[in-house]
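stage 2 :: seqdesign
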């Protein structure tokens, strides 16, 4: 869930960033730091998030149980 929240929060940043070249932004503009922090945490959370996803998907890839219908005599 942490990786989902991280991505959700980071996706809002482009709405606040004018996407100008670095030389046109103030020197204290935090785009590079935000991108670096996002990448670091995204990578740190990747293995556990993928393991969880795979375990959930595996549950739905099993064949359905045999039907236990009522037989007609």
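stage 2 :: out
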């Amino acid at each position: 869930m942490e990786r989902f929240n991280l991505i959700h929060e980071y996706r809002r940043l482009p709405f606040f960033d004018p996407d100008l070249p670095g030389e046109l932004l103030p020197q204290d503009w935090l785009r590079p730091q935000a991108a670096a922090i996002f990448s670091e945490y995204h990578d740190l959370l990747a293995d556990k998030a993928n393991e969880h996803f795979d375990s959930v998907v595996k549950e739905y890839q099993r064949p359905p149980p045999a039907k236990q219908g009522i037989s007609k005599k």
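stage 3 :: structure notes
- Residues 1-13+30-50 form one domain.
- The mean pLDDT is 84.
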